[in-house]
Amino acid sequence: MKSHHVRTHASSEGLAREDQLAWRIAEVAADPVAVEDDVAEMIVNRVIDNAAVAVASLHRAPVLAARGAAEAHPRAAAPPSRGHGATVVGIPGRFSPEWAAYANGVAVRELDYHDTFLAAEYSHPGDNIPPILAVAQHTGADGAALVRGIATGYEIQIDLVTAISLHAHKIDHVAHLGPSAAAGIGTLLGLAPEVTYQAIGQALHTTTATRQSRKGEISTWKASAPAFAGKMAIEAIDRALRGQTSPAPIWEGEDGVIAWLLDGPEGGYDVPLPEPAEPKRAILDSYTKEHSAEYQAQAWIDLARRLGAERPELRDPRAIDSIVLATSHHTHAVIGTGAGDPQKFDPSASRETLDHSLPYIFAVALQDGTWHHVDSYLPERAARPDTVELWHRISTVEDPEWTRRYHATDLSEKAFGGRLEITLADGSRHVEEIAVADAHPLGARPFGRAEYVAKFRTLADGVLAPAEIDRLLDTAQRLPDLTAEELGSLTVHASGLPAAPEGLF
């Protein structure tokens, strides 16, 4: 990997194109380096993972709305040069690729249940898959080309997330997704750096927004934001292919992203990117979720489940004086009491809010000994009096050591858990720690292919016919070898789906 220093440049400095971050990313996208076998295997895992969480959300309101918008943009039969359209999860037919990517992106993100990478910024790099897949289906690409594109999408997003904090300036994390998805599509299509460079600039320019979407009472837009970024990436590629140009230098300009949205005119970042001919392996540094909740809650769910089973008396709020979770700054400030959000303690809060409330999540996992993507968020579950009482006795604090470990570059030291301190009503204390979730590569039960397949089967049960479950798994596990025709069947059809609400289209 090579580190690229990125800073604001005055217009009078005349920053050369080849020295701009967008150009360097475009060069990485154009590098025809082969995808290594273990990377290809993990890409298959994440395609299965995305399919699992998308299927589980097919009946949810944000997904219905997004699917309805896609259905309003069908792709009629056309010559191959005009494109084939892309599939939408759950329904038959072909649709305009940007709208298919949007619908599928909402389905993937709705339950907050797919993969994650955390560093200077937060991310769900699996959000790259819907737009890249949609363009692959639309253009008649094969599975090998799709694998190359996804490898680039993951690489660029993870490299940006490693170096550039957006949340520190209250910018939503999907600002890294627009450029990464555009780069992944550039690799998929074998585009020249010039074209991908223009698309990256447009994708970033159109996908920067504040992170109010993840603050306070969280709305349904939380699932739509990354889907919108993927849609914008496809549109940016389309415009770039038509010869249209973009604001530049988009990161480094005097009125660019760094100067006015991030660290300011004096700020700078060191962004790691692969050298020429260096394999793109960043996907292997990411990790998926066993539980449908914000990633920084994963390890705490595992600890709470185990603790409740070992010491069931702790499930009774009358036995507890206080529970303090000492953790990283990120966890404390985003899903903990450091956020200062009273909604995180409101039993009537939205599902989107509750899955960003660590005190709620820990209380329910402790009492139930499990975590369910639907049942754990039901209004009647959140309002149970003994849960509310326990929930309000839980708080978080920042611990500098756990913050340091959160940001560690040594993956054997990097951690997303913390230290649990329970003070019981009788004055006694219980203290223990957990570093990573059980499903993490360094956890008690790391996820492998069998676990990804089991996750899909579990979430698809009762939603898809058994034969459809088997067909999707067979297709996905042959992804690197799929023909273009077979890639068109990398989707699922479900029966009995509710009708989408009407909108403008």
TrEMBL record:
Residues 291-474 form the MmgE/PrpD C-terminal domain. It holds the Pfam family MmgE_PrpD_C. It comes from the Bacteria. InterPro entries: MmgE/PrpD_sf, MmgE/PrpD_sf_1, MmgE/PrpD_sf_2, MmgE_PrpD, MmgE_PrpD_C, MmgE_PrpD_N. Residues 20-265 form the MmgE/PrpD N-terminal domain. Belongs to the PrpD family. This is MmgE/PrpD family protein.
